[in-house]
Write a structure and sequence with these properties.
With 110 residues, the chain is an alpha+beta fold. It has a single domain, classed as HIT family, subunit A, CATH 3.30.428.10. The chain is 31% helix and 17% strand. It has a 5-stranded antiparallel beta sheet with strand order 1-2-3-5-4, sandwiched between helices. Strand 1 and strand 2 form a beta hairpin. The chain starts with a helix and ends with a helix. The structure holds zinc ion (ZN). Zinc ion binds next to helix 1.
Amino acid sequence: MADCIICKLIESKKDLLFEDDKVAVLLNPEPSAPGHILVVPKKHAPILEAVPDDVVGELFWNANRSSVCAFEALGAQGTNILVQNGIPAGQKSIMSLYMSFPVSRMMKSL
Ligand SMILES: [Zn+2]
């Protein structure tokens, strides 16, 4: 989608941490804390219901893998993985589904 910031970030590869054919993991351009990670479908989807079932599985698998990295590499003791599904549920106006977790909130210390 031409005016979607997430689609633009995926295309630019800016702050891209991982990608495969279905999912991208990248740093949040508007982080609530340093290292805030987004896990997004590579094909634009405004809400979770628009994401194919196999991609939903890949989103959660990548969120879990990113969480494991936070535990093992950053010393996190817990993680929050958020899915704000639609603007009334807290999704930002970027109009794209994303899963996010702010890394610094789950670390022992920075
Ligand atoms: Zn998009």
